[in-house]
Amino acid sequence: MNTINKIEEITDKCIKCGFCESVCPTLPAFKYNSIYGARGRVILAGYAVNHMDEPLKLDDSFYSCLDCFACENACPVGINAGVVSELLKESITEQKFNEKNPLAEMMKDAILKYENPLGLKDQCSQWSDGIEFDKSDTIILTGDMYQLMPYTRFINKARKYIDSAIVNSFSKIISKNINLITLSRHFYDKNLRIKMDYELKNIVYLLKKSGLKFDYLGQEEPYPGMFLYDLGYINEFKEYSKNIYKFLKSKNVKTIIAIDPHTYDLLKNKYPLFIRDFDINIVYYTDLINLNLKKSDEKITVQEPCHMVLHNNSYRAMDILNNISDVKLPDRNGKTTMCCGGPDELLYPEISYSISRKRYEDLKKTADKIVTVCPLCYNNLSYDDNVIDFSEFVRNLIIND
Amino acid sequence: MESLKDSVINEIIKVIGKNNVITDFEGEIPYENDASYISGEKPLLIALPENRHEISKILKICNENKINVTVRSGGTSLTGSSVMTEPGIIINTMNLDKIIELNLSSRYVVCEPGLRLDDLNNYLKKYNFFYPPDPASSKASTVGGTLSTNAGGLRAVKYGATKEWVLGLEFVLPNGEIINTGEYTLKRSAGYDLTALIVGSEGTFGVISKAILKIEPLPEKTGKIIGFFKNIYDVGNAMSSVKNAGITPIMAEFLDFYTLNSIRDKLKLEIPEYTKYMLMLDIDSTEESLEKKLLDVKKILSKFSGDIIIIRDEKTMDEIYMARKGAYSSLLKERENKNQIIVIGDVIVPADQLPDAMKEIEEKVGENKLKVTLFGHIGDGNIHANIFADSNETGLKKVAKFQMDIAKIAIKHRGSVSAEHGIGTEKNELLYEEYRDKDSLYTLELMKEIKKVFDPRNIMNRGKIFYEHN
Questions:
Q1: Would you tell me which residues 118-157 of chain B have a C-beta closer than 8 angstroms to some C-beta of chain A?
Q2: pLDDT at B194
Q3: Can you give the CATH number for the domain in which B150 is found?
Q4: In the Cβ-directed half-sphere of B454, how many Cα atoms lie within 13 Å?
Q5: Are A400 and A171 a contacting pair, CB within 8 Å?
């Protein structure tokens, strides 16, 4: 079945009840302009596949979808509007509709050339300097997520002052001279970089302290291609993921410990779709933590990550936190959790800000201390110093550390 | 020279800014539909105002230029109320979504029209209060939309429909005047009750910009009783017996076998093989006396059914409640193909007439050779007949005929053609029939005159409610 048929099959089921848009974080952020919400996206997608000859402008509607999948749990007929957005983005990159998104194109070009969306492969392994790893067929794979946050934060600060048309023109220029993207290595939030490096070290510490033996590929660590997939470059991702898999097999990797929800979800659920007989075991680091922890006397709230709770039905981090602290969750929790807005950070920074601010305020009403379990969530919600990464929070509670 | 369309669009943009309007082709597409099967015209513009003053200015512009205006919020109408019968402007009130004031001792909450009902109730729950109107669409439907259709819902048997729960409104008239109706008080005897007139007017008078709503403390304790039945008479008699014993459930729902089957996996109940109907009652009471009340109801139901279940666990009760709320949507999953639609009927009869009305509806189903499933709010006599049909002309004609057939049954039994979904464009002929049968067509003429007082230039939601009888 081709992409268009897949879209049609889903959109035909839609009953237009609007339940999905009641939980869609982007709809209020776009002031309730329907095509930036789940129902509007499904309706627009249905229209687009039935009017292929019309010159429709679709990219902003579907690229702004956060892929949080909150809509799936609200839909009475089981439609996942996030998947519709994924398929539309794929169709756009296949040039079935209007012109491609220039910023997305630029990141795709950078990934294909540098194995990193900002051309920062060398910078992404620097956090591990001085850490000794074991010789093992189990590795941690960072997905470059923690490492990229200081750069995206800097870019976003700058982007707030630049019109999107200029950003698009600039992206087109960089795409033509893709080596220019490596200049981004000079532009990052220094404090956040220190923080992110620290959290990466914390994660390694927690795993080691739990008695695990594992390796890290350092400068050879491959970027798994998350942005290729998320931006709809599925054809490119197919080839790319095969190469990554081949490389990992050449390194005799048998188990990957993912340390952020997005990379975990990609490796666990998307790689096997494109790689026949995929046989690397994928685990999430919180599932492996086995530590003697003391109880915190602080009341905390938690930003449950969409890619664990909504995509993978995984609550291990919550179980740990519930055992060691007084957890109070906001109204939207568990299967109704709300995205931090992070996935829109690069393409739609104002929208990402609006969503993250709303979520931060909801969390703050619940408890002063916010624990995040995903680097995107941390980056987007750390409006004050009382936002803390899971790894740091847990590390502080290790008995006899 | 600038066309009328362009000049109106430009004027509205001047008033609320280009970021608060939708004029692009793609952006307008979703507004051609609501949750009904009825498609409307493509709007010239969708306005997304952020306060009453912006609404007022938009209406003034449209009034001066005689431009059709349809108001919309959650877009959950099942009768086509929130789509346009002719080109014009849509005012989407979703950006007015705030809770302005809560007063527990005086039992009211003041909020804006774009606030969704579930969001309101999630907020009130923290204070152990709730707003009773409870349509199945409460996840998406809004204060403004449910006021405009006088929505009912599952709890209407005890708490009545939306009109019982509104104390006052801030309302923007087509000429731009902002008026206040009602007050913050539970009692008021001061002139015509314009609040009551506006509730259920489906956006044909103007735009609600604020509402003062009554609230109630949450029931102290509730339990659920479910019974399985071989025929509708036993269901009706069981329900009547409960009521005759002086017990008013907070929810009293019935489902036929087909509907039951569509939500079977969510109910997680053992359903006896003989079942043709299921009755579910929610009973509330104090902590101390709930058990006795549940057993009293069980004893009454046992006279009509051999299988009665009592559920006390809140999580299970919630799951069953959500399954029932999702019944219509679950039926939609059973469409045989994309061209099949399910039209939901919404007739109501006095509760004691329900078994007879149901029997006659079942006969009409056979006569019309249609696939129809039945469920509804038995406590208040509201029957939802869900009609499976092709979306082509022949299919729609069959639906219209069957809708008229069941409307006539409802009218015969002293009921109405629409209990809680409103009229929209779908039921205007049925509404005409209701008053024709009562020999009271002048009532409709009076309604039209009232509409003229509010909206003399006829800009608000043209083509809704009234049947243009040739």
A1: 118, 122, 137, 139-140
A2: 97
A3: 3.30.465.10
A4: 24
A5: no
B266 close to A (CB below 8 A): no
d(CA B35, nearest CA chain A) in Å: 5
> A51 — contact with chain B (CB < 8 Å)?
no
Q: How many CB pairs under 8 A join A and B?
A: 84
Cα–Cα distance for residue pair A361/B282, rounded to 1 Å: 36
Distance between CA atoms of B168 and B378, rounded to whole angstroms? 30
Q: What is the 3-state secondary structure (H, E, C) of chain A?
A: CCHHHHHHHHHCCCCCCCCHHHCCCHHHHCCCCHHHCHHHHHHHHHHHHHCCCCCCCCHHHHHCCCCCCHHHHHCCCCCCHHHHHHHHHHHHHCCCCCCCCHHHHHHHHHHHHHCCCCCCCCHHHHHHCCCCCCCCCEEEECCCHHHHHHHHHHHHHHHCCCCHHHHHHHHHHHHHCHHHHHHHHHCCCHHHHHHHHHHHHHHHHHHHHCCCCCEECHHHCCCCCHHHHHCCCHHHHHHHHHHHHHHHHHCCCCEEEECCHHHHHHHHHHHHHHCCCCCCEEEEHHHHCCCCECCCCCEEEEECCHHHHHHHCCCHHHHHHHHHCEECCCCCCHHHCCCCCHHHCCCCHHHHHHHHHHHHHHHHHHCCEEEECCHHHHHHHCCCCCEEEHHHHHHCCECCC
What tokens appear for B71 in the block? 């108001």
Q: Which domain holds residue A37?
A: 3-99
Burial bucket for residue A323 (CB in 10 Å: 0-12, 13-18, 19+): exposed
- For B123, the closest chain A residue by CA position comes to A331
CB within 8 Å of chain A, chain B residues 284-343: 326, 329-330, 332-333, 338
- The Cα of A169 is separated from the nearest Cα of chain B by a number of Å equal to 22
Identify each DSSP E strand in B294-449 by its residue range: 308-311, 340-344, 347-348, 371-377, 382-390
Cα A171 from Cα A174, distance rounded (Å): 5
Structural domain including B321 reads 221-329
Distance of CA B441 to the CA centre of its chain: 25
A113 plus A225 within the same structural domain:
yes
Domain boundary (B329, B356, B372) is at: B329
> pLDDT tens-digit profile of B302-344?
999 989 999 999 999 999 998 988 888 888 878 888 888 999 9
Count of structural domains within chain A: 3
Chain A partners of B338 at a C-beta cutoff of 8 Å? Answer: 12-13
Convert the pLDDT of each residue in B349-378 to its tens digit: 998 898 899 899 999 999 988 999 999 999
Specify the 3-state DSSP secondary structure of B88: strand
The rounded distance, in Å, linking the Cα atoms of B247 and B53 is: 47
Mutate to test the interface with A, among B51, B139, B142 (most CBs of A within 10 A): B139
Cβ-Cβ contacts under 8 Å, A53 against chain B:
none
Q: Given B114, B122, B139, which is nearest A19 (Cβ)?
A: B139
Please count the other Cβ atoms lying within 10 Å of the Cβ belonging to residue B283: 24
Q: Is residue B400 part of a domain?
A: yes
Last residue of a domain, which of A99, A119, A146?
A: A99
B202-233 residue pLDDT tens: 999 999 999 999 999 999 999 999 999 999 88
Backbone dihedral region of B128: left (phi > 0), alpha (psi from -120 to 50 degrees) or beta?
Answer: left
Residues B160 and B269 in one domain: no
- Taking CB atoms and an 8 Å limit, are B26 and A77 in contact across chains? no
pLDDT at position A224: 96
The string of pLDDT tens digits covering residues B435-452 is: 999 999 999 999 999 999
Q: Are residues A62 and A86 in the same domain?
A: yes
The CATH number of residue A42's host domain is 1.10.1060.10
Distance from CA of B330 to the nearest CA of A (A): 7
